[in-house]
Specification:
The complex is a heterodimer of chains A (about 300) and B (about 325). Chain A is α/β, with parallel strands linked by helices. Chain A has a single domain (about 5-300), classed as 3-Layer(aba) Sandwich (Protocatechuate 4,5-dioxygenase, Chain B). In chain A, about 40% of the residues lie in helices and about 25% in strands. Chain A has a 6-stranded mixed sheet with strand order 7-2-8-1-10-9. In chain A, strands 3-6 form a two-stranded parallel ribbon. Chain A has a two-stranded antiparallel sheet with strand order 4-5. The longest helix of chain A is centred in the middle third of the chain and has 22 residues, at about 165-185. Chain B has about 325 residues and is of the alpha/beta class. In chain B, the strands form 3 sheets. In chain B, strands 7-2-8-1-10-9 form a 6-stranded mixed sheet, with helices on both faces. In chain B, helix 6 (about 210-220) runs antiparallel to helix 7 (about 225-240). The longest helix of chain B has 18 residues, at about 160-175. The chains are: A alpha/beta (about 300), B alpha/beta (about 325). The interface of A and B includes residues 73, 127, 200 and 202 of A.
């Protein structure tokens, strides 16, 4: 078996609003097409265009909306089929899914995580409802649903202990994920599915997609998002990680769910520039679609 | 009471009592994993049997495990029927459910909440994932759906004032429809869970400090001093990892009149995966109402900006 690799790593946020706006046949609600989130839909289209030139055989996603306290869990049934209704935005997301899981890779990720000292658990209950974070992210990245996925839960380390502790654990999980991909010979697309700033509006207009309503919740969030994206574009993810606890605290960032730090860990803390495909807001939160090409081997090996 | 009779007895609505119950799945799905879990299971069943005898026409629930962002959501599907697998404890199995909700009450509740300025909406969709806490409570308190129920979400941004107003809106709806209800707050006490897998027989409260705080809260509830516990919720939550800031007690006390005049009975107290799980029964009683700890505002109207950022405090209005 040849050694596997990560073909690209993406920050791929999961507002269910984007699937709603795209009106795929799997989703029951129909949107008005008023266009509030067109910028982010365009960003995902740009990402999909970039990924067309890459060959990969599995999507690995870390999702904030499967929350676990007892360790990190990973989907490990061969397939899941059902209806996923978002408990927060049920008016927007009622998605019929029929997906396959790369169980061999899932089990390898659990083993590598355990070997690194993490608490890991494979999820083998076929009745499990796949969360909307996983479904939204995967659908927007690859709507064909023709490849298997592996989904990781969001452990509560940040809120149970501290942002610093959470980041350490997620970096270890990311590294374990990369080792599992390499050992199983997979060509994997890894997806950290979170927003940046994450303070929501708590009201919704009559047409949820009304662009007149949509903007960032507050200027502080926009400034933080701009700074974080600047680090990504400059290839300075070490500084991004150093500032992560402040970002989480001051911008109510969804990075507190660990998805971005896990992604950076899987990529080896990039010191090369990322491509920002776009940035936009959804119900006041800041969201960016970002892609990292795999880094040069020397850059990864030279990192502490 | 049938729907057609509702409203005719407006003014006769009443909250017959309140329950505080835990919602961890072990109590329903693995009661024999630990003697404490079995005890909680049986205590909740007994509490449910009592509901069948006291004239309760409706169970109104607030569950900390159903979080919302867009205001407050009310479960309005008359017969939610689906399956639930807990996100953390999926190995315990699947909860199949077929519940009986009071859609008319849900709509009235939504309207009363809106009247008090809250953002509120009903939800009724096939496949809507009823949360584990609500299911544990309803399956044990009301296993045969003999009493219709209604559940409200726990808004993640709502602090005390908003939650208190939600409790008052609940009472508004109860009185408008003239119903005899029992209020059910589905919440842990301390909510620090074990973050590693444990042998269930080794389960205990996560720390002596959490345990001490839980016992103090239960002592006060046992004296019927519900509003005093509501006033202490912030302190308890910060000191003992209260479940979702122990917001459920704000809702419960506001619904039950913000009083201490209750007969309180602590039916059980056990650990579930490190958390504090108490079953408490509160019934209105004729007794003196004490005001020992009251220092929180009673949210009725919005007081406005106090100008605390003004460079000249004298300009603040």
């Amino acid at each position: 078996m040849s050694q596997g690799s990560i073909v690209a790593g993406c920050l791929a946020p999961h507002p269910p609003h984007l699937v709603y706006a795209a009106n795929p046949p799997q989703n029951e609600p129909r949107s008005s097409g008023a266009g509030a989130w067109q910028g982010l839909l365009d960003a995902y289209a740009s990402l999909r265009g970039s990924l067309e030139s890459k060959e990969y055989d599995v999507l690995v996603v870390h999702t904030p909306h499967w929350r676990t306290v007892v360790g990190h869990h990973v989907l490990a049934c061969p397939e899941f089929k059902g209806l996923s209704v978002d408990p927060v935005f049920p008016n927007l997301f009622r998605f019929h899914y029929d997906l396959r899981v790369d169980v061999e890779l899932a089990e390898a990720m659990a083993e590598e995580g355990e070997a690194a000292g993490l608490v890991m658990k494979t999820m083998r209950n076929p009745d499990f409802r796949v969360d909307y974070g996983t479904l939204t992210c995967c659908h927007l990245v690859r709507p064909e649903w023709d490849l298997p996925i592996v989904a990781l839960s969001s452990n509560r380390a940040y809120t149970y202990f501290s942002s610093e502790y959470g980041d350490r654990e997620m970096l270890i999980l990311g590294e374990a994920t990369r080792r599992a991909i390499e050992k199983t010979g997979r060509k994997a697309l890894v997806l950290g599915s979170c927003s940046l700033s994450h303070r929501h509006f708590t009201e919704e207009p009559a047409d949820p997609e009304d662009p007149a309503f949509e903007h960032i919740h507050n200027r502080n969030q926009a400034l933080w998002d701009e700074r974080v994206l600047g680090h990504m574009k400059m290839g300075d993810c070490a500084t991004l990680l150093a500032e992560m606890p402040d970002f989480i605290d001051q911008a109510v960032s969804e990075c507190a769910e660990g998805s971005l730090t896990w992604l950076l860990g899987a990529l080896g803390i990039p010191d090369w520039p990322a491509t920002v495909h776009g940035y936009g807001t959804v119900i006041g939160t800041g969201n960016a679609v970002v892609e990292w090409e795999p880094g040069p081997p020397t850059a990864v090996e030279g990192r502490p | 009471m049938t729907g057609s009779n509702r409203g005719k007895s407006a003014g006769s609505g009443a909250v017959l009592g309140g329950l505080l119950v835990p919602g961890k799945p072990q109590i329903l799905l693995d009661p024999d994993g630990n003697p404490g879990w079995r005890s909680l299971h049986d205590s909740m069943r007994k509490a449910g049997e009592a509901l069948m005898e006291n004239g309760t026409e409706l169970l109104v629930l607030y569950s900390t495990q159903w979080t919302s962002i867009i205001g407050h959501q009310f479960l309005a599907d008359p017969e939610p029927k689906w399956t639930r697998v807990d996100e953390d404890f999926h190995e315990l199995g699947t909860i199949d459910y077929h519940l009986k909700m009071d859609a008319e009450f849900a709509e009235s509740w939504r309207q009363k909440a809106t009247d008090r300025g809250l953002t509120a909406r009903t939800v009724a969709y096939e496949g809507f994932p009823v949360d584990t806490g609500s299911l544990v409570a309803l399956k044990l308190l009301n296993p045969e759906n003999r009493i219709p129920a209604c559940v409200v979400s726990c808004n993640m941004y709502a602090d005390r004032a908003e939650t208190v107003i939600l409790g008052k809106a609940t009472r508004d709806a109860v009185e408008a429809l003239g119903l005899k209800v029992t209020a059910v707050a589905v919440s842990a006490l301390s909510n620090r869970m074990w973050t590693r897998f444990i042998d269930p027989v080794d389960d205990r409260i996560h720390s002596a400090k959490d345990d001490e705080w839980n016992r103090k809260i239960l002592e006060i509830l046992g004296e019927g001093r519900l509003e005093d516990v509501s006033q202490l919720a912030r302190e308890f939550s910060s000191q003992a990892h209260g479940d979702n800031r122990f917001k459920a007690i704000w809702w419960l006390s506001a619904l039950m009149g913000q009083d201490n005049a209750f007969q309180g009975r602590v039916l059980d107290y056990q650990a579930v995966w490190g958390t504090g799980a108490g079953v408490v029964d509160l019934v209105p009683a004729r007794r003196g109402s004490s005001n020992l700890e009251y220092d929180e505002d009673d949210a009725q109207t919005w007081g406005g900006d106090r100008g605390v950022l003004s460079s000249n405090p004298g300009e603040a209005t």
